[in-house]
Amino acid sequence: MxxxxxxxxxxxxxxxxxxxxxKSPAAGSGRMLREMAADEKPREKALAYGMDALTDTELLAxxxxxxxxxxxxxxxxxxxxxxxxxxLSHLSRLSIAEIRKRWKGVGTxxxxxxxxxxxxGCRVQQSLAVPDEQLRTSADVYAYMRHRLERLNHEEFWxxxxxxxxRVMRSERVGQGGISATAVDARLIAKxxxxxxxxxxxxxxNHPSGTNRPSGPDDAVTRKIADICKIIxxxxxxxxxxxxxxxxxxxxxxxx
Length: 256
Prior knowledge:
Elements: H1 20-23, H2 42-49, H3 56-64, H4 73-83, H5 88-92, H6 96-102, H7 108-128, H8 138-149, E1 156-162, E2 168-176, H9 186-195, E3 200-206, H10 216-231, E4 235-243, E5 246-249
Parallel strand pairs: 3-4
Antiparallel strand pairs: 1-2, 1-3, 4-5
């Protein structure tokens, strides 16, 4: 199986199997981007088929953005990859200055963008190795959210989107109001749950007044969100009210 037709997904991993275009003396030789069919241009190809459909040469061409006089961006990209023996790990070790010095047509802006993309990819890879926060109890939720809410002098309403294993996929602020109230739309919360493919939700808002006890409107909005999410088979697992003195959990009180 030719592994270079899809981008190298592991930071520092070599690409050892090449497409015919990448083995040729000059990938895209003799053809400028404007002469290529729309579905052959890297950016258009990515939009039509996704990034995984692009070769390393095409991905690099998107990052570089343009070539130089007499050399298309695909030719320049092919030249760079040939010079590092098609090993992305070798390219990843080069500094901005080394990239600028090594390849004519790659100035400060392009070299900086390329090294930034490589660094960002490495950080994404590191992030993937760290599991998302798992919220098992109301105390876990309180520890996760208190730094955002307990010192505010206005109300905010947040929704935590959880996976099947109760790991946080997204934290979303859905409302911000005054000292004693904030408006939220249950329909938009349900739509967001569908968009994020959430298995469960945890609602969180704060009481700047210092009391943890829910108000009548708090009870009403909790029921409304739970009812509408039940229709789309997404369970509201808890609703926490956070204040400077602690928190209240609807689940712990047997109200969800």
